[in-house]
Amino acid sequence: MQIKSFEEYEQTYALSVEQPETFWAGIADNFLWRKKWDKVLSWNFTEPNIKWFEGAKLNITENCLDRHLEEHGDDPAIIWEPNDPERDSITLTYKILHEQVCRFANVLKKNGVQKGDRICIYMPMVPELAVAVLACARIGAVHSVIFGGFSAKSIADRINDAQCKLVITADGAFRGAKQIQLKEVIDDALIGCPTVSKVVVLTHTRTPVSMLKGRDIWWEDEIKLVDTHCPAEEMDAEDMLFILYTSGSTGKPKGVVHTVGGYMVYAGYTFANVFNYKRGEVFFCTADIGWITGHSYIVYGPLSQGATTLMFEGVPTYPTPSRFWEITTKHKVNTLYTAPTAIRSLMSFGTDPVRGQDLSSLRVLGSVGEPINEEAWHWFDEEVGHGKCPIVDTWWQTETGGLMISPIAFVTPTKPGYATLPLPGVQPILVDEQGQEINGNDVSGNLCIKFPWPGMLRTLYGDHDRCRQTYFSAYPELYFTGDGCLRDADGYYRITGRVDDVINVSGHRIGTAEVENAINMHAGVVESAVVGYPHDVKGQGIYAFVIFPNHHEDAELTRKDILQTVTRVIGAIAKPDKILFVSGLPKTRSGKIMRRILRKVAEGETANLGDVSTLLDPTVVDEIIDAAKQA
Ligand code: PRX
């Protein structure tokens, strides 16, 4: 499946556009199917209705596990590096991972889980998390993994939206110097979740936990009661594989649905190609499995290709800012796939931590999640890659399932800050506000995709109409990404950032409306408006303008109370970086907040605010500017 030269890329790309079905059928032939498809693709972007490999039967875990056993059963599938470098790392071979997945799949079955049931997973970055994910897929249960930084309320909303039957969690998680009490958070969440009848709890941090009789069971006890024989459930290509919640412009997170066949082909194909993975190499994706990057490039993509995937429990700066480089040295990492925010944070510690380590094993570097600034790109290139590793700046989204616009390592000439060119099968177009295609080069517009690809979302769980409205209604017959983009004179794409009310904080997507709703829940808050602003390390920070007439004399105390509320309602990841108390917000006569003005204030660019004549009360703006200057 690997493309070897730029010429071959151009030919492959042309084929994928001219004969998409032939192209994707050829790629899909590299996977294991119990029965091949009757039809490669049927689609329309109006409803939308997208079906890939209709009629095909498979199980994704047979592709990720069983098919490697005979020849590569003793190859390492997962290398786990713990938070604490003093603890031993763990290697699971394909044979052992297969056994563990089968065993845990039997635990799920024994506890009443059936094909199609939704399972919530809220776990630390330990091998058992990958085992839990794959065990669901083995028996056709739909996993909904929730990142360990979300609050009880966020979890409850997600569990209720998907009507999950069972939760898999652990006593706690280590993250750097901190411990997170996962089970306690789940206990709080489950007070409001009537559909959950069982909770499987893994022992990890050994924190004391409450175990409710009849509901809570220990992972370690359960696996002793079952054997390792678990035939894989036969799935239709279009059966649901997982739900992953992500933020949108409205307050309610969206349950993005991916299906088995197309997702598998897309994650596997993009992994093999973009990273130029060679069997035996160690692939280190630093994301958490709670995000799409972890789903596609820690679990499904690498394992479908028989790769060795490295799972790291901790954070880049613990116990020291050398940690990524120490891991690279220790495990002879060949590909390091990380986020610009991590690079910027590590850059701030200077070159000593990175120069002290042996990074000679590195062959390919990757970046994901947010635009990478040139300074970070060059530092990554020079200090980490020593000028000899291609950097693949991969643009994609939770909804796209896999990489969309990205260089292919050793094939596509790279350019700092550019995701470069679309991968085979991906047909991007730029449109103006009216939806007219913007042709030619050296142009910019809103990024849309005009033809389906196998990894794309199929619906939003329980709300197909929201899926249509969010992605397929802004511009008829196009998938709208929500991103702004420019295409330079060479036809290279550079993603400039979200054009909707979503902000990207440390590579995590956060809806401004979600944060506003959370702030507004705090007693005393009348109204709030949240915008993003440029942040040196996080890419974007969260700036909240809050109307709070009678706040505490010590404004700092009130700020902390608000942060606490946001942490309770969403989770610590959504805490505003700045809170400004104001007495009014700039609104139009029809009551709409003019965020454009707030963004300028947040960026400190108040000299040219543009037209404010449509505001109901233009004096509000001066007051906000004064308050911001004093803050
Ligand atoms: O704005 C784009 C940004 O992240 C958004 C998708 O976020 P999420 O669904 O959480 O997935 C993140 C990991 C795939 C996009 O709409 N984004 C992602 N990758 C890049 C990027 N922006 C610029 N360059 C990238 N390489």
Automatic annotation (TrEMBL):
GO terms for biological process: acetyl-CoA biosynthetic process from acetate. InterPro entries: Ac_CoA_lig (IPR011904), ACAS_N (IPR032387), AMP-bd_C (IPR025110), AMP-bd_C_sf (IPR045851), AMP-binding_CS (IPR020845), AMP-dep_synth/lig_dom (IPR000873), ANL_N_sf (IPR042099). PROSITE patterns: AMP_BINDING. The keyword Zinc does not apply. Residues 9-64 form the Acetyl-coenzyme A synthetase N-terminal domain. Its EC number is 6.2.1.1. It comes from the Bacteria. Residues 66-452 form the AMP-dependent synthetase/ligase domain. One of its GO terms (molecular function) is AMP binding. Keywords: Acetylation, ATP-binding, Ligase, Nucleotide-binding. Residues 514-592 form the AMP-binding enzyme C-terminal domain. The keyword Signal does not apply. NCBIfam families: Ac_CoA_lig_AcsA, PRK00174.1. Belongs to the ATP-dependent AMP-binding enzyme family. This is Acetate--CoA ligase. The lineage of its organism: Bacteria, Pseudomonadati, Bacteroidota, Sphingobacteriia, Sphingobacteriales.
